[in-house]
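Our platform keeps sequence and structure together, in a single record for each protein. Such a record has a labelled line for the sequence and another for the backbone structure tokens. The tokens are whole numbers drawn from a learned vocabulary of local backbone shapes. The remainder of this section carries one protein's record, kept here as part of the documentation:
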Amino acid sequence: MPGASSATTPLPTTSHGTPQPSRVGLAGVATMAGSGLSNQIGAAIGSLAFPVIGPVGVVAVRQYVAAVVLFAVGRPRLREFVWRQWWPVLLLAVVFGTMNLSLYTAIDRVGLGLAVTLEFLGPLSIALAATRRRVDACCALIAVAGVVTLMRPRPSADYLGMGLGLLAAVCWASYILLNRTVGRRIPGAQGSATAAGVSALMFLPVGIVVAVRHPPTLTAAVCAVAAGVLSSAVPYLADLFTLRRVPAPAFGLFMSVNPVLAAVVGWIGLGQRLGWAEWAGIGAVVAANALSILTARD
């Protein structure tokens, strides 16, 4: 899931204005692998706290951790912001919180692999909508086929959970577009840091209510904090390192395997087994993204 990163194709993390490197070194591959695994393992660990504080409590803690990390990195000068800069930041804060809340609630209902796959449709849609190539139309059809497979009618289908996954996808697409606007109007990571801070403030009363009504155990608190660190802090810092050493297409191609990583982590760590149809649907979404990136023209 997206933590605090910001790319263009297909994720919101490559528009920092730095020259793109031409080769993928071992350090870059290791960092991308570590970032992807950290993100999904963090979500899996966070889900262990759901029975105690629920997805809302876990997301609240994650927002707090993201705010602390991004404020330390971005160091925003809030007094210098004008309204033209503030309004996209405020929208980004709302989208950031809604995206994480809908994703974690979807994970609670339909499992890690399916929830992350549906969420990934957000950046994939942005990437496909940016071009008018025939191959991208084919990619869109492949992705749609994958979604139809995942959401096919069956007695055990949780359509509310799937709908929340699709809401997370819409939020991620909005997150990408808003991040581009914020990046153009506010230098460095100040905009993202401010949005994370505002989102954390929005979740502050939520966290207090959750703590009062459902007092967290030590284990639940540790799991929630671990989710914040592994799914927000580590991926953000890893992406800053990676995007200085890895070309944007290679970064996007590698990150497209996140649904597969999520399914594997959910299977091994949480016992969330998927049938052949679910694996086929996930494979279709990943293949659509990979094909679009591999055939993209500079």
Notes: Residues 3-20 have pLDDT under 50 and may be disordered. The chain is about 75% helix and 0% strand.
